[in-house]
Amino acid sequence: MFSPLKRRRSPSGFSSSSSAEEVTSGIDGSGLVAIVTGGSHGIGAETCRVLALRGVHVVMAVRNPSSGARVKEEIERQAPTAKIDIMELDLSSMSSVRRFANNFKALNLPLNILV
Asked: Segment Disordered: which positions (predicted)?
């Protein structure tokens, strides 16, 4: 007979049911810069939200800047001091990738995290 898997915590104390906020609790990301691809939907948007909550300067690399702007507004409601930039990026287009890279370099920011 089939028995459901037991949810066991790993040595880190987290399990598959742990939330991103739980996993990052106590982490200070101030001074870090992250580029998050696909930040306007799904897990990318959640990644942007949690990184911003932890003080990381988030650069949302998105195909549709207006979708990114909606996510940014929602994050800023939860974290008014969040540092979030939206930059257009279509990973299926090398010209878009080059343009994004040049625009990011022009910001003179370090890159600490790439998602």
From this structure: 1-24
**Domains in the chain, ordered, with CATH?**
29-114 (3.40.50.720)
**pTM of the predicted protein model:** 0.85
CA proximity to 63, closest of 103, 109, 105, 96: 96
Provide the Cα torsion 73, 106, 104, 79; round to 10°.
Answer: -30
Which pLDDT tens digit goes with each residue over 30-48?
999 999 999 999 999 999 9
Ordered mean pLDDT values, 10 residues apiece, the chain (115 residues): 58 77 82 97 96 97 97 96 98 98 98 98
